Amino acid sequence: xxxxxxxxxxxWMLSLAVLALLPVTGLLRGSFLSHVLVMILLNASMAQxxxxxxxxxGQVSFGHSVFFGIGAYGAAYAVTNLKMTPYPGALxxxxxxxxxxxxxxxxxxxxxxxxxxxxxxxxxxxxxxxxMIWEDVGGAVGLDYPILKDGWRNFSWSRSKVGYFYGALILxxxxxxxxxxxxxxxFGYYLKAIREGQETAESLGVDARRYKLAxxxxxxxxxxxxxxxxxxxxxxxxxxxxxxxDMSMRFVLITILGGIxxxxxxxxxxxxxxxxxxxxxxxxxxxxPGVDLVIFGLxxxxxxQFQPKGIMGMIDAARKRRRKLxxxxxxxxxxxx
Amino acid sequence: MGLFLQVLLDGLWxxxxxxxxxxxxxxxxxxxxxxxxxHGEFLMAGMYVSFFLGFLFKIDPLVSWVASAAFLFLLGVVxxxxxxxxxxxxxxxxxxxxxxxxxxxxxFAMNRFTPNFRILSGTIMxxxxxxxxxxxxxxxxxxxxxxxxxLVVLGLLYWMLTRTRFGWAVQATAMDVEAARLMGVxxxxxFILVFGIGGACVGVAAGLxxxxxxxxxxxxxxxxxxxxxxxxxxxxxxxxxxxxxxxLIGLIESFAGFYIAPVxxxxxxxxxxxxxxxxxxxxxxxx
Lengths: 337, 287
Prior knowledge:
The complex is a heterodimer. By secondary structure, chain A is mainly alpha-helical. Chain A has a single domain, classed as ABC transporter involved in vitamin B12 uptake, BtuC (Orthogonal Bundle), CATH 1.10.3470. Helix content of chain A is about 75%, strand content about 0%. Chain A has 14 helices and 2 strands, in the order αααααβααααβααααα. In chain A, strands 1-2 form a two-stranded antiparallel ribbon. In chain A, helix 2 runs parallel beside helix 6 and helix 12 (about 265-285) packs antiparallel against helix 13 (about 290-305). The longest helix of chain A has 27 residues, at about 210-235. Chain A is globular. Chain B has 11 helices and 2 strands, in the order H-H-H-H-E-E-H-H-H-H-H-H-H. The mean pLDDT of chain B is about 90. A two-stranded antiparallel sheet of chain B has the order 1-2. Chain B has a domain at about 20-215. In chain B, helix 2 crosses helix 9 (about 220-235). Chain B is globular, with a radius of gyration of 19 Å.
């Protein structure tokens, strides 16, 4: 059992190590490519954080920008107003987000379907407007970072993006390892059982509300860490940037495009969508503003028409087709089960 | 007293406007059980139709609401056929597909029409105000006319749903698609028409709005969100519920804006919505 899980971890550790060696190869010298890579890792981590509650526990929340925003403001507040390193701010943000997730989750988890979705929209709007008028965190203007010395102490690099790449990789490694462990843990199975049928799970003795709240808190804390990274990378935060419905939708869309409730879905979604978005933004700029988002919207519409289970759904379908073909082939040769 | 009455009436006008905007959304939700996330962008698109008719051809919003309603009827039908139809019954797919559509419409408008606020001047109702009691209470005519339109449209919608054969077919489809089909209802046609009518309702509001509100690509976002609140608060596809919830939201907005602080009005609106939904998880009139 023990050696099994170690064996299972080897390819995962190896791939993280390979990713960690990328900057050494000199492939990342172009700053645009490193920017795209950092964004892929960040967005995959965000989507994975959302996947815990949205995918595994089946509660499709459109409120994750609130947790993301709290993390972002936590780090930014520590740096700009308290003149500290961002780490205590990020940590405080993650804890606050987890507490808030429980406070939000407790009453809203009894809402069904669209009612839950709309309630989470409303929560985003409330926080958006509160941060807009909260002068201590800069109101509508937000918080602007001062010029900081490069390095891990400030989690800030101005000359090259390699530092941010490693930061994003650590974030990605932590969140994906966590969900990887979750997939095989009792907790993960409980969540899936609740998603498939809450009454059935409860009748078997699973305390559905407790596990959903725990999943929400974990998901919120991870989303807040992503927010803190975003603030450090972006060097400023304001309510419309982090605490918006568009930001909330980003969590949901990437996960769903990649494959909701699967371990690799969030990475696949980010690896396809982010380069597409960044490159169309860069290359279609001459067509005026918004063209990249029009294309983004069209892709979402198209994917939803044909494969709402996302890329993992396509892979699954292809696998099944191949298995069916193989089975048909066997039957043809007279092999029967 | 005059002040109180003024705040009350202002809340009533916004509430009735929200009711008109939300009616189509409520209908679509009630029959197809989906949220049309692009509803706010429908409103924005209709406002551009009305604005450009006024700006280029000097047609008053009092007339061009017809064009705007017709345009949104078509947009609704197209949306159903090409965006929604294939996604029906697949959990979150309709919501996300219409979210994609909202991104397309909003950014298309941003790209073609620039983010500038466009104000239509020289309309018939521009700046007209009815003053009562030596100016103690002011009633802006455009808001009043929109409110009256709202009552008429909601009344017609309610009449259609409860008193006509078509309405009965719609209700049957909303209750059980399979059973309705077995009874000979062409449910596909019902879905198309419901989306069209839902669009046309918001089109009426969109056509009138440029006479007192600036048109810009982001104008639909807040209205769309408020429409979601209205519909969820009113309860699953209930037109009277939506009207009541809309007026309630208009009043909360107006009173919170006046007696607490203008910046708090939407915090209060969304906060009260969250409270209501905790007590009645399926809305005031939901079942």
